Request: fold
Amino acid sequence: MRNRIIKSALAAVCALALSVPALAAEGGTGYADVPENAWYADAAVYCRDRGLMSGTVPDRFSPDRPMTRGMLAVVLHRLAGSPAAGEASFPDVEPEGWCGPAAAWAREKGVLNGYAGGRFGPNDPITREQLAAAFWRFAGSPAADAADYADEADISAYARTAVDWARTTGLMSGGSDGRFAPQGGATRAHMAKVLAGYASAPRTATQVSAIDILCQPCGVAALEDGSLLVTDGYNKVIWKVTNGKSAPFAGAVTAEDVYGQPIGGYHDDTRPNSIFKDPWAIAPFLGGWAVSDPANGVVRFIRPKEEKNRTEVTDLGIKFSYPTGLAADGEGNLYVSDTLQGTVMRITPKGEITTLASKLAEPMGLCWADGQLYVAECGGNRILRIDKNRRVSTVAGSGAAGSADGTASQAQFCGPKGVAVDRDGTVYVADTDSGAVRRVRDGQVTTILTRDPRDLTKLYPAAPTGLLIQGDTLYIADTFARKLLALPLR
Reply:
């Protein structure tokens, strides 16, 4: 087992168009007005099944109906996970109406703004260039350049980069005549196609920090100033990463073994002089930082500041078998996965210890969210959840080893070691032995990041382990690729 671990009205109509679930018919698409061979059929079914966009009435999709600004705001808001937003005072939008929260969110994020006179225009139809621009802003306004369309001069200045981006990503393209038709209308069929294409496309992760070529990042946590703390199992140290640059935070580099790797050890001292054997996870605790050190069988404690006659790095005085995953809640409690014992424990600020779950199959990564503890059960190939009454339930995973997407109960994971939960309840999984990052949302498991075997310049993700969500970014510590990655979530 140890070897595995180590290796291993119009408004009313619009409201109906976005909220009434379509009733599935016998076979086909489930929509009377969507033929199975229609160019948008798969997209319409995809959007309906994931709660992004459904029928105008139970058995009709109304593919040719124009998309409106209000409808666009709603589907993008849903795609973002329906986050809360401040109120936006549009004279033509009811704050609690069918598109009120979405319009407020769209304005707050700069995805879809109001007109110069203050109106939002929820029932105004959108154009193709407006559709491209909204998704481009939703994606973070990335730089893009593409070949010109035959009617390039007709594309509004604000939308040109967006149209280039839509073309390079394959979300939107021109007609057979080489024209984009930027002022042309965008129908519900167009919307479904673009929405499904964006939602299902694998994301691209970027490298945050080179740190050291021999680095083996595993755990990641955030400081208040936005810097990241990253555990390094190769050099046996903890790095502080700020604006893409790394500096030692704790741990001293020790003598090397015959292969040139630092051997590490166990020594309590000041941060620069302390020695770790295998720093794995890191989480806030008692104003400082808890660091699991499984090879030493302890959880180390980095004090918030050095105190007179006391070392800055010590341990919690608790003996574990093989502690890996750590998480903290809002009440100062620390949660620890003792992997080889198959247990998950809670340690209070007073040092009281409670076993929350036992007889698990190699529990590892932990995440506390919304009053519940999420567990990556590495040996069981599942993601678990422990509630306040210590009841354990399965979030996703059939238990069989594999990498199959699908419904949460039937999807397969292979040695997941990390888990993170977004503010909307979406669960992200470091499916380590599959070399992928997976997402659990609305009862569905989807692979959102995996290596493209055709691109030999990017050999990652390879073995994603630690995960951390900060704002709209998922940070991924990839132990085998030796990289800290950043994946945009919106």
